[in-house]
Specification:
Distance between the termini: 101 Å
Order of helices and strands: HHHHHHHHHHHHHHHHHHH
Number of helices: 19
Shape: elongated
Structural class: mainly alpha
Number of strands: 0
Helix content: over 70%
Strand content: under 5%
Largest sheet: none
Oligomer: single chain
């Protein structure tokens, strides 16, 4: 009778051993099914094994789960479930390493399934982006970043501290989804490390911050100008910003400081000239030159000074030549309006003669610069939008000069050029 408690204990132990043995068999059977390509059967068996306490603490169980789900993803890489399969595989491999570091060589050195997941997520993200499936691209590139960060965190020389291309592509996918705030959050990560791969990143951030966060806006603007000194969009953005705020003194101060530090910097010199030009010849709401400021002549002379300085730095660049020629030409046009007003009022003849002389002087000054801009742009086989506009306006300005001088051969030659100008559009 006293043997019964022992017999009962033995029976319980036997039942526990039998359950553990059954789950081990499930793991072994799942491994065999994986080798035979019976993935659905393998998935069902490994699912049971990962939920049973007898096998859920075994590294091999999780390793096999990772292998099975990786195989499911590879079976049909275009299936909507492929990303979820890879994610499940990734989490399983992580759990395997957490349980037994001996699997490190198998997962990271020899067979490298974790590295393969990184590549597979990347390929799927690129395919989704190219097919304009931006949510799919967003999801896959986020997984790319997750895998990279995990690999780097292992401290085994894998992955990178900041996967800039993954972050860029996450931001690009979000931007194309219309999620501008999300895109800006990822783009800001790139701006924080002074990323120079895409100026577009900074342009999106400027648009995002301009009316929301002045401190961030100005910080990004200063960084973008420093990183992309040849990109005129950032200089134009700064001019537009201070124009809108009506704080031209601040802009002039910043630009003069920049030119003082680097007198050979063409872009800073040109932008300072443009700023003085805009201050001397403010535009009204219709885009026409409005009422001139009291210190017009002083500002006008400053603009000339810096336009000529810019031209001396880059004689064959069209921008400074065109802008200086246009400023002279518009000055002549403004005097033309004054002449028209005097004539209508039967104004003083001496005053009219003085205005005519001043107008002719301005047109004479405009001609060589407009001619240079025209020649530079005419020599190009194709022109971007800004170049094409300058090309047309240079021709129109020169036509006005030649018409006044009764040089109709030159006028007609330029008319043919103007008629054919759009053929140069990129």
């Amino acid at each position: 009778m006293q043997l019964r408690p022992m017999l009962f204990s033995l029976l319980i132990l036997g039942a526990g051993f039998s359950a553990a043995q059954a789950q081990n068999k499930n793991v072994n059977k799942a491994e065999a099914d994986l080798k035979d390509g019976k993935l659905d059967e393998a998935r069902a068996l490994i699912s049971q094994a990962t939920m049973d306490e007898k096998t859920s603490d075994k590294a091999k169980t999780w390793y096999l789960k990772g292998e099975i789900y990786s195989a499911l993803a590879k079976k049909d890489e275009t299936a909507s479930e492929a990303t979820a399969y890879r994610d499940t595989a990734f989490e399983a491999y992580k759990q395997c390493l957490n349980l037994d570091s001996k699997y490190t060589s198998m997962l990271l050195t020899n067979y490298k399934p974790l590295s393969d997941l990184y590549v597979d997520f990347w390929k799927q993200g690129a395919n989704a982006f190219n097919n304009k499936d931006y949510p799919g691209a967003f999801s896959n590139f986020k997984h790319v970043k997750t895998v990279n960060d995990y690999l780097f965190g292992l401290g085994l020389g894998m992955g990178s501290e900041i996967d800039t291309m993954a972050i860029l592509n996450i931001g690009n996918a979000a931007y194309n989804m219309g999620e501008k705030d999300t895109a800006a959050a990822y783009y800001q990560k790139l701006a924080d490390i002074k990323f120079t791969g895409e100026s577009f990143v900074y342009k999106v951030l400027l648009a995002q911050y301009r009316d929301k966060d002045e401190a961030k806006y100005l910080a990004v603007l200063d960084e973008a100008k420093a990183l992309f000194p040849d990109d005129k969009d950032f200089a134009n953005e700064e001019i537009s910003y201070y124009n809108e705020k009506g704080d031209m003194d601040q802009l002039v101060s910043k630009l003069e400081e920049s030119v003082s530090k680097d007198p050979e910097n063409y872009n800073s010199t040109l932008n300072l000239a443009i700023t003085y030009d805009n201050m001397a010849n403010p535009k009204n709401d219709s885009g026409q030159i409005g009422e001139l400021p009291g210190n017009h002549d002083e500002l006008f002379d400053k603009a000339i000074q810096y336009y000529k300085k810019a031209i001396s730095l880059k004689p064959d660049d069209y921008a400074a030549n065109f802008n200086l020629g246009l400023m002279y030409y518009n000055g002549a046009a403004h005097l033309g309006k004054e002449l028209g007003s005097l004539s209508a009022k039967n104004g003083d003849q001496g005053q009219q003669d003085s205005l005519i002389k001043a107008q002719n002087d301005l047109l004479d000054s405009a001609t060589p610069y407009l001619q240079k801009a025209y020649e530079v742009l005419d020599a190009k086989s194709s022109l971007d939008a800004n170049e094409l506009l300058a090309y047309k306006n240079a021709i129109i300005g020169l036509q006005g000069v030649y018409a006044r001088q009764n040089k109709m051969d030159q006028y007609n030659e330029l008319k043919q050029k103007l008629d054919a100008a759009d053929s140069k559009a990129q």
